[in-house]
Specification:
By secondary structure, this protein is of the alpha+beta class. The protein folds into 2 domains: 111 residues, no CATH class; 47 residues. The protein contains 3 helices and 6 strands, in the order αββββαββα. A 4-stranded mixed beta sheet has the order 2-1-6-5. Strands 3-4 form a two-stranded antiparallel sheet. This is Prohead serine protease domain-containing protein.
């Protein structure tokens, strides 16, 4: 459920690992090398990996497409079960406490994804998103100007008709 990760992201010391192995730390939120946020899909993570052989090997495997999924270890704080349909029981996680997030070869949930992006790619995407936002804002300003001009024309026509 949206919001299930909110408190743990703000309050917990969360580590990013390779395959949930704490001997292969990739980042940590308290050190600023792991950024976690909830997006429309669920939990999103960005890792600034260390310059180590295991991290560099992982990046190579990700670029090749050999490793492309992620996982997270968590403790359930609050959940709800919906068993109205006996053939399809649904569990909704309402609040969880994250233990770690990991880039993995064998995730518990196959719908997950992980990809490596260089700093340059991140900046490029960021700049493009800013440009897109600015273009949308400019379009909104143009629309408002056009609507205002149309209202002025309407008022002018109404005044002419009243004369």
């Amino acid at each position: 459920k949206k919001g299930a990760f909110k408190n743990t992201i703000l309050e917990s010391d969360i580590v990013a690992n390779k395959n949930h192995n704490s001997n292969f730390i990739l980042g940590r939120n308290q050190s600023g090398t792991l950024i976690l946020e909830e997006d429309r899909k669920g939990l999103k993570m960005e890792i600034d990996p260390p310059d180590t052989t295991y991290a560099n090997d992982l990046i190579v495997s990700m670029e090749r497409g050999d490793i492309d999924q992620c996982s997270f270890a968590f403790k359930v704080i609050a959940d709800k079960w919906n068993n109205e349909d006996k053939n399809n029981v649904i569990r909704t996680l309402e609040k969880v406490e994250l233990r770690d997030v990991s880039i993995v070869t064998d995730p518990a949930y196959p719908q997950t994804s992980a990809q490596y992006r260089s700093t340059e790619e991140v900046f490029k995407d960021f700049n493009e998103s800013i440009k897109d936002k600015e273009e949308k804002e400019e379009q909104e300003v143009r629309k408002k100007k056009i609507k205002s001009a149309i209202r002025e024309i309407d008022v002018h026509l109404i005044k002419k008709e009243l004369r």
